[in-house]
TrEMBL record:
Coiled coil: none
GO biological process: fatty acid beta-oxidation
Name the record gives this protein: 3-hydroxyacyl-CoA dehydrogenase
Residues that hold NAD(+) according to the record: 18-23, 41, 106, 111, 133, 157, 289
Domain 3-hydroxyacyl-CoA dehydrogenase C-terminal residues, every copy: 200-297
Upper classification of the organism: Eukaryota, Metazoa, Ecdysozoa, Arthropoda, Hexapoda
Organism: Ignelater luminosus (Cucubano)
Entry similarity comment: Belongs to the 3-hydroxyacyl-CoA dehydrogenase family.
InterPro entries according to UniProt: 3-OHacyl-CoA_DH (IPR022694), 3-OHacyl-CoA_DH_CS (IPR006180), 3-OHacyl-CoA_DH_NAD-bd (IPR006176), 3HC_DH_C (IPR006108), 6-PGluconate_DH-like_C_sf (IPR008927), 6PGD_dom2 (IPR013328), Mito_3-hydroxyacyl-CoA_DH (IPR052242), NAD(P)-bd_dom_sf (IPR036291)
Amino acid sequence: SFSSTSARNAIKNVTVIGGGLMGSGIAQVAAQTGHNVTLVDVSSDILKKSQENIAVSLTRVAKKLYKDKPADGEKFINDSKSRLKIDTDASSAVKDADLVVEAIVENLEIKHKLFRTLDEAAPSKTIFASNTSSLGIGDIASVTKRTDRFGGLHFFNPVPVMKLLEVVRTHDTSEETYQAMMEWGKAMGKVCITCKDTPGFVVNRLLVPYIAEAIRMYERGDASARDIDTAMKLGAGYPMGPLELADYVGHDTSHFIIEGWHKKFPDNPLFVPNESVKKLIQEGKLGVKTGEGFYKYKK
Ligand code: NAI
């Protein structure tokens, strides 16, 4: 029956590789929701930083969840922390893993190197997933011998706050693997959507060209940056305008994504990088994080 299948396949032990912005968030939420988590990065110094960031974020979550019950909040923090281990050796960290979520640097060669190693080290039951934003899941999985037990689990920043999880199936992802990923997503408290392994999945496939088109409008001088943003906020009900959003995401990040797609799909006009963004990057104006992009920000 379905319930016995799901019980058998329930994901309990999760290894997260990459303790940066995304990996820390994924590890935190997994620990919060009762999973045994091992967080892996290349050095103990980085992992110490990850643990500090997770501790700050857990405190924030506890304050919200247990507003009038500080003792319960304290227990929530301690229980979550007790479920979270750190390790600098990826091979040993996947030995008991039901699921590995990769959130390392966005570089296909480096991800391949990691997954070759993990494929050797992990038991055959272990499901592999990548949190990549812009690379193909099938392209990443291709170096492993478990392409049927490989899928995409694409989270959004900040992971503890954003409700969405995109669950990505490749041609090879098995039904069992897909079901296990969906169930884990729900257990993580996320709202899961399913999509195929196409560039940008759903959210970024729509958002990246939309932002680029808004920037092209600004480049042509059809309207000011402020007016484009005001128009989309008040006329389309978006919480942020497209240029504000571009500044918030960071021009280096979105340019890296669209440049990658443009190289891979040169004929798609939606994936043409913006000249004004290249100029902003050259000037070091990456957006909110550097104090200036299309707008100026107080640092
Ligand atoms: P980050 O730069 O904050 O963190 C990456 C971490 O991976 C670093 O701590 C680095 O030391 C570690 N790392 C690099 N190579 C490693 C290896 N071989 N083994 C173990 N650790 C290694 O990057 P971020 O923003 O967390 O992104 C990670 C992944 O998540 C990327 O694939 C990105 O496309 C994806 N992503 C990013 C989002 C974002 O808003 N930043 C949103 C959704 C997905």
